[in-house]
Amino acid sequence: MIGAPKAPDGAKVQRLIPFGYVLNCSRHFVLQVRDPVRSRRFIGELVAGDLITNATVKKEDVTEMKDRGKCPANIGFTFRGLEKLQLRVPYQRVFQEKAKAFVQGASARAAQYLADSGPSAAQCWDKRFAPDHAHVLLSVYADTHAELKQFAATLRGIPGAGGLSGWTQPVEGCQLTDTSEFRTEHFGFRDGISNPVIEGFPPNKPNAHAPGEFLLGYPNDDKFNPWLLINPSTKPNPWLRPLNPAPQLTEFFRDGSFAAFRQLAQDVQRFQDSVERWATQLGGGQDPEKWQDYVKAKLGGRWWNGAIVQPGRNDPPPRCDGYLDTKKLNDFDFSEDTRAHGCPFGAHIRRMNPRKDPVVPFPQRPLIRRGMPYGPTVKQEPDAPRGLLGLFFCASLEDQFELLLSQWGNANPLGPDDRGNVRDPLASNHQDPGACFDIPIPGEALRQLDGFSGFVTTRGTLYAFFPSVDTVGRIARCGPPAHPRAPAR
Q1: Helix or strand holding residue 465 (H, E)
Q2: What share of the chain is helix, strand, coil (3-state, %, to 5)?
Q3: What pLDDT digit, counting tens, does each position of 272-317 carry?
Q4: pLDDT beyond 70 at 322
Q5: To 10 degrees, the CA torsion angle through 349, 190, 194, 470?
Q6: Which H or E run contains 403?
Q7: 357 alpha-carbon distance from chain centroid
Q8: Which pTM was predicted?
């Protein structure tokens, strides 16, 4: 029988998927294929020049890249982009059979599966995310915008870069803090605390997920490999014939991952006004800072320093305690908070990552998030655009990313005793001002928050396939495996 390798090859996996980058700035080029031949030339040159950073590159290697005038870079393609690049039909047919959300694209599925309506509707998105424009997503990272600007000039000087348009309007992100040990986003929550770990990649942890949850071609946590395209039988299988099950077809998809790139604008003033109103409602105007910390902790699920909200503790950690080590912030699974007396059922983290929450009736839907704020803080420029950029990696956009947004983020909380009906308080498109957020407190009167409005607005989303480094080269060659004597076209 023919099967997948036991573990992913780090030299083939793009580094952004398992590790991300501990850097301060990002620049995401959403590019349009104008000339397929020249565009493929550019993609081939990226691979030939080792400009696509793979997972064998260590943290210290990323730092050394700066001295060579390079920045870590990773690349993904929309289905429309792969069509424009003239990817061969058998590969397209596999996507059409096994990845319908990717094929249809985010804008076509926004209303039904992403709960994007009203100001967040796809027709209101930034034009860069339009299906006819968003073909290639090239993401680069550095510590300063000056480094990104210099590297962008290098990229545009690569042969074939002129076959792509969109270079002058990248989507840029920048961390709000100088230290990587404590990252925040514009609402003031500690950010970048938790992410799933993939088996076969450090750090090796007992709760790591099987590679197939994020990388195509491997078994997932349920021991099932939906991307095993090769017929394991010695006899031909007519059911697999439409997929043209050849070894090179399976190799094309192996070690790749799907991603949703999402830009969310944040209305910080509206959020802060709501927090102050709720704090006054709960605290009667006494000790406003304490009650504002309390409200935000219940909405998010963590205190200002990242500590999980535990049952029996209603006072925020003193500011003089400082920040907690991120390694100590993820050793929990809600098993000691089954009634949500600490972290409410409707809280952001309990929805987006329920871990082994006993109220969740189906398997976990792990999602890797590589996010970063964009725009200056309110204190720096009150009226400037600001928000969050998120890259969410998974093996199934339908069963992981879309399920989290549509069923966990934008439906009623899962808790059996929860009396609230508001959507995810931090990340959803609130359109029902009468919806309420339930805060269960044993032995006390009912605590509920209402009057939710639009704190975030979707500015754009695209679905991309981040192939293995080898497959990026094959896309440049329209599909065939590499040949020692075959130059990149």
Answers
A1: strand 456-466
A2: 30, 15, 55
A3: 999 999 999 998 889 999 999 999 999 999 998 888 898 988 888 8
A4: no
A5: 120
A6: helix 403-403
A7: 22
A8: 0.91
